[in-house]
């Protein structure tokens, strides 16, 4: 299987969040979760002073750009390229160029791999996040996104829930 890389997509200025939402929706509709792993609009916290009052606000680090962590193939290229608000990938011509590991580290995005001691079918307990103290059997694992899916009883029904590797522990 091909390796996932970070790519930069150019958008109309001011459309970054809309592009992110549209791509996220398309990923869900076309079941591309295992190929397009993450879509980000990098933000930074800055202090603005207006009329002598300091105010902490989030601003886009790169207005007009969105970062996408994906496996580049014809399908993913087509989905991203034909999303409303996207003008193209950053790179020469129509060939997208992935960001290097060093460039990603400078942006504060680390690619750390969590090694786990559990697998599908194992009973786990959630140790952090919204589902803390919930127990469940792993029904699916996504190593690219570093998540496990467990079934949780919600409103009297079994509901699949995705939890980060870092938030679960294997039960003995």
Characterization of the model:
The protein has 172 residues and is α+β, with helices and mostly antiparallel strands. The chain has two domains: 5-106, Alpha-Beta Plaits, CATH 3.30.70.940; 123-170, SH3 type barrels (Roll), CATH 2.30.30. Helix content is 17%, strand content 40%. The protein has three helices and eleven strands; from the N terminus they run βαββββαβαβββββ. It has a five-stranded antiparallel sheet with strand order 10-9-8-7-11, with no helix packed on it. A hairpin with a 2-residue loop joins β9 and β10 (157-164). The chain is globular and about 50 Å long. The relative contact order is 0.17. The model has no long low-confidence stretch (mean pLDDT 85).
Concise account of the structure shown:
The protein has two domains: 5-106, 2-Layer Sandwich (Alpha-Beta Plaits), CATH 3.30.70; 123-170, Roll (SH3 type barrels), CATH 2.30.30.30.
CATH superfamily of the largest domain: NusG, N-terminal domain
Q: How large is the radius of gyration?
A: 19 Å
Distance between the first and last residues' Cα: 33 Å
- Would you tell me the structural class of the helices and strands? alpha+beta
CATH class placement of the largest domain: Alpha Beta
Spatial order of the strands forming the largest sheet: 10-9-8-7-11
Continuous helix count: 3
Number-wise, the strands total 11
Write down the domain tally.
2
